[in-house]
Amino acid sequence: MTVTGEWRGTVSKMKGRNVLAHLKRHFPLTEAEFEGENGELIIYLMSGSPGLFNGDRQRVCCRITDEAHLFLTNPSATELHPSLIEEAIHQTETFQLGENSILEYLPEPLIPFKGANFKGKTSLYMEEGSQAIVSEIITAGRVGRGERFEYKRFASQFEVFWQGELQVWDSFQLEPRMDREGPELFNRYTHIGTLWILSETLSAGDLEYIQHKVIPKLPQLDCYGGASLLPKNGMIIRLLGHSSQELQEAIKICWDYFRQQLFHMQPLEVIK
């Protein structure tokens, strides 16, 4: 299997600072790193390619050692393009979190173009005391050009292992074919957002806050959503909207709350 792009990094806490202690990358992936106001390491994962094309294979592997804190994002949306071959785009993301480490991974949206075929998988391996906030936004395509649900296939898997045991497995797959505009397709919403909050310290009170303080206000953002606790150490928030900006705003409200509640840190304003 040929890997088109690869990025491997290890984030460690050394002498009180979060640093990128080890790095290996393969074009077109590269990174820019900064130190956040709360000491977290901020990494922008960037690509020299205009996007991913059918047949491409991209791999991201990141290890966050004990006590380290990483905020990971990318500067712009990832475009998923068709090509002359039918083979799917394969993107795998693997994160290993040491004890009492923190991962915040909020990438920009995925935009599947007409004819695109995408298969993604994100895996988190969590140890005692580790915490993670992970988001994903999927668009219907180039909506501004009237291109809605014209991609061939979009498949995404998300899994979480707590101390070696599989605790979360989520699979989303859509193959738009017949009626791309009918009410049965997300009730005419065009964008799907997911926010995972993974922590041993989550409580029913956190769910109550989201359900009673955040969800009722989603119509003001022209969004629809719901939240539920996972069987162990986590919560999922699912959102539907008509634009990436609406979903990003809704996710930011939730992220700000959990950042303060779980990490005891002020909201992080990310410049892009």
Integer tally of domains? 1
Strand fraction: over 45%
How many helices? 2
**Mean of residue pLDDT values:** 94
The biggest beta sheet is recorded as: 8 strands, mixed
Question: SSE layout and pairings?
Answer:
Blueprint: E1 5-14, E2 17-26, E3 29-35, E4 41-47, E5 52-53, E6 57-64, E7 69-73, E8 78-81, E9 89-97, E10 102-105, E11 110-112, E12 117-126, E13 131-138, E14 153-162, E15 165-174, E16 191-198, H1 204-214, E17 224-229, E18 234-241, H2 244-263
Parallel strand pairs: 1-6, 4-7, 5-8, 6-9, 7-10, 8-11, 9-12, 10-13, 12-14
Antiparallel strand pairs: 1-2, 3-4, 13-16, 14-15, 16-18, 17-18
Q: What would you note in describing this structure?
A:
This protein is mainly beta and 272 residues long. It has one domain. Helices cover 11% and strands 47% of the residues. It contains two helices and 18 strands. It has helices at residues 204-214, 244-263, and strands spanning 5-14, 17-26, 29-35, 41-47, 52-53, 57-64, 69-73, 78-81, 89-97, 102-105, 110-112, 117-126, 131-138, 153-162, 165-174, 191-198, 224-229, 234-241. The protein has an eight-stranded mixed sheet, with helices on one face. Strands 2-1-6-9-12-14-15 form a seven-stranded mixed sheet, with no helix packed on it. It has a three-stranded parallel sheet with strand order 5-8-11, with no helix packed on it. Strand 1 (5-14) and strand 2 form a beta hairpin. The chain is globular and about 50 Å long. The two termini are 33 Å apart. 38% of the residues are buried. The mean pLDDT is 94.
